[in-house]
Amino acid sequence: MTDSTARPATDVPDVPVAAAPLPGRDMAQDSVQEPVPDTGRETERQQTLLEMMGGVHGLIYSSVPVLVFVLVNVLTGLTPAIWAALGAAAAITVWRVIRKEPVQPAISGLFGVGIAAFIAHRTGSAKGFFLFGIWVSLVYGGVFLVSAVVRWPLVGVVWSALNGTGFGWRSDRRVRLAYDLATLAWVVVFAARYVVQQWLYDNDLTGWLAAARLGMGWPLAGLALLVTVWAVRRDTQRVAREKERDEQAATPSAPSPS
Fold it and tell me: Which residue windows does the record flag with biased composition (Low complexity) (predicted)?
């Protein structure tokens, strides 16, 4: 007699092997699909700021012609020192071209060394080599100061022009204040260079003038650059907040349940 209530084992549905989840598979997929935060954007912005000054190499290269001029002038005389400084500036320009580095700062440096050499040749004095840089500091300091007074701080203007972020920061009081402070930091740098070096020039202290030119170059610029980076970060945070608000406004809200 057959037992009708018994069911054969073959009637149990088999679970396909392929349908069974593999250990760690979901975790692997999550790790692949998980977006990686863009942590390099702030670094790229800081590098762009540094490139405004020719980069780290540019800050160092700007001191080489001055150092060469001082050393050769002490060892030989004014005329060889002038040619040595020009040769050093030209060599730096060629070196940057070979290394495919930005050459605009090097060309500007070569132009400045050429003017300084011409003034030194015309005045017949080694201190004349530094006169052009002294007056450039005065002009730059005046331009930066005026831009802060008229509430168009030059640091913010230059940064907006380089990155195409617009001038929306002018309506943000905190960001505009940050750019004002960064611009005034550069005013202090240029004013200090002018006052100290002009006094040394007037008192014929050529050795100390050369030391001041080197010591008040990229070290002071580095301090002002720190304030500039701080201001740019505040502007970057403002842009991020505005972008987030725009994205939220563009996202349609879910219909409320009736």
Answer: 1-23
63 CB burial (10 A radius; 0-12, 13-18, 19+): middle
> To 5 degrees, how large is the angle CA 55–CA 99–CA 92?
70
- For the record, the structure tokens of 1 come out as 């007699």
Query: What would the pLDDT profile of 16-57 be if each residue is shown by its tens digit?
Result: 444 444 444 444 444 444 444 444 444 444 445 555 555 556
pLDDT of residue 194: 97
Tokens for 141, please give them.
């300091």
Q: How far apart are CA 244 and CA 258, in angstroms?
A: 30
> Cα(176)–Cα(160) distance, rounded to whole angstroms?
12
Burial class (CB in 10 A: 0-12, 13-18, 19+), 135: middle
